[in-house]
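Reopening this one. Same input as before:
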Amino acid sequence: MSQAMKEELTLEQVEALSIREARKVIAELNKGLLSNHKDRIRLKVNGKDHPKSWLISQIKMKLDLYPERVTEIVSAISAVA
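Same output, byte for byte:
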Protein backbone atom coordinates (compact mmCIF):
# COMPACT_ATOMS: atom_id res chain seq x y z
CA MET A 1 0.00 0.00 0.00
CA SER A 2 1.41 3.39 -0.92
CA GLN A 3 2.04 6.19 1.56
CA ALA A 4 -0.77 8.29 0.06
CA MET A 5 -3.27 5.44 0.48
CA LYS A 6 -2.18 4.93 4.10
CA GLU A 7 -2.67 8.64 4.82
CA GLU A 8 -6.06 8.64 3.08
CA LEU A 9 -7.15 5.64 5.08
CA THR A 10 -5.97 7.31 8.25
CA LEU A 11 -7.82 10.55 7.42
CA GLU A 12 -11.00 8.50 7.02
CA GLN A 13 -10.28 6.75 10.31
CA VAL A 14 -9.63 10.08 12.05
CA GLU A 15 -12.94 11.49 10.77
CA ALA A 16 -14.77 8.39 12.03
CA LEU A 17 -13.40 8.60 15.59
CA SER A 18 -15.85 9.19 18.40
CA ILE A 19 -15.05 11.92 20.92
CA ARG A 20 -13.93 9.28 23.41
CA GLU A 21 -11.58 7.69 20.87
CA ALA A 22 -10.23 11.12 19.84
CA ARG A 23 -9.44 11.86 23.49
CA LYS A 24 -7.62 8.51 23.77
CA VAL A 25 -5.55 9.25 20.66
CA ILE A 26 -4.58 12.68 22.03
CA ALA A 27 -3.72 11.18 25.42
CA GLU A 28 -1.36 8.74 23.67
CA LEU A 29 0.20 11.55 21.63
CA ASN A 30 0.72 13.60 24.80
CA LYS A 31 2.41 10.78 26.73
CA GLY A 32 5.94 11.73 27.70
CA LEU A 33 5.50 15.44 26.92
CA LEU A 34 5.73 18.04 29.65
CA SER A 35 2.54 19.98 30.38
CA ASN A 36 3.97 23.15 28.81
CA HIS A 37 5.53 21.45 25.76
CA LYS A 38 4.67 23.11 22.43
CA ASP A 39 3.52 19.83 20.82
CA ARG A 40 1.10 18.95 23.61
CA ILE A 41 -2.62 19.07 22.75
CA ARG A 42 -4.83 20.35 25.55
CA LEU A 43 -8.05 18.43 26.09
CA LYS A 44 -9.62 21.18 28.19
CA VAL A 45 -9.52 24.96 28.36
CA ASN A 46 -10.77 26.76 31.46
CA GLY A 47 -12.15 23.46 32.76
CA LYS A 48 -14.30 22.82 29.69
CA ASP A 49 -13.77 20.07 27.12
CA HIS A 50 -12.92 21.04 23.56
CA PRO A 51 -15.54 19.97 20.98
CA LYS A 52 -14.97 16.86 18.88
CA SER A 53 -14.36 18.91 15.71
CA TRP A 54 -11.46 20.74 17.38
CA LEU A 55 -9.94 17.50 18.69
CA ILE A 56 -10.16 15.91 15.22
CA SER A 57 -8.52 18.96 13.62
CA GLN A 58 -5.64 18.73 16.11
CA ILE A 59 -5.15 15.03 15.35
CA LYS A 60 -5.08 15.85 11.61
CA MET A 61 -2.41 18.50 12.26
CA LYS A 62 -0.29 15.95 14.11
CA LEU A 63 -0.85 13.50 11.24
CA ASP A 64 0.95 15.94 8.94
CA LEU A 65 3.85 16.32 11.39
CA TYR A 66 4.18 12.73 12.69
CA PRO A 67 2.40 10.42 10.20
CA GLU A 68 3.89 7.12 11.42
CA ARG A 69 3.13 7.72 15.09
CA VAL A 70 -0.42 9.02 14.53
CA THR A 71 -1.24 6.22 12.07
CA GLU A 72 -0.05 3.61 14.58
CA ILE A 73 -2.07 5.13 17.45
CA VAL A 74 -5.27 5.67 15.43
CA SER A 75 -5.10 2.12 14.04
CA ALA A 76 -4.62 0.67 17.51
CA ILE A 77 -7.47 2.69 19.02
CA SER A 78 -9.80 1.90 16.08
CA ALA A 79 -8.99 -1.83 16.29
CA VAL A 80 -9.85 -1.95 20.01
CA ALA A 81 -13.14 -0.08 19.57
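So the earlier flakiness isn't reproducible anymore. For the record, Residues 2 and 8 are 10 Å apart (CA to CA).
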